[in-house]
Amino acid sequence: MRKLSDSEFEIMKVLWSQEAPMTSNEILDRVKDRYDWKLAGLMTFLARMVDKGYVFCDRSTRTNYYSAVVSQDEYKFQESESFLEKLYDNSATNLIAHLCKGKKISKKEITELRDYLDSLEGEGKEK
Fold this sequence. Notes:
The protein is mainly alpha-helical. Helix content is 63%, strand content 6%.
């Protein structure tokens, strides 16, 4: 799947936050405090996102309704895999080592990560 631009990602976050499909005006209203977008610009983003397969546009009524096709979890997984592959040779260990060396991960987070990994190991023993 093609990558989302930063602006497209912001629109996806709005769509993910709602259970029901949204109109372009509702989306624009949700982002107006952070972005100075005009409706025409938003419509361009939405059309691209439909083409990329991230958004569905329901044109069955006079008003178009937009909804996310790709879930937030699916997107995070896809982006995480791409990031890990591109920068860390598909190695989570290399990523974590880099974060530790750069002091970007706190001692508390290391403890939480250790506990999480231990819980995964425990799950494997039960099976």
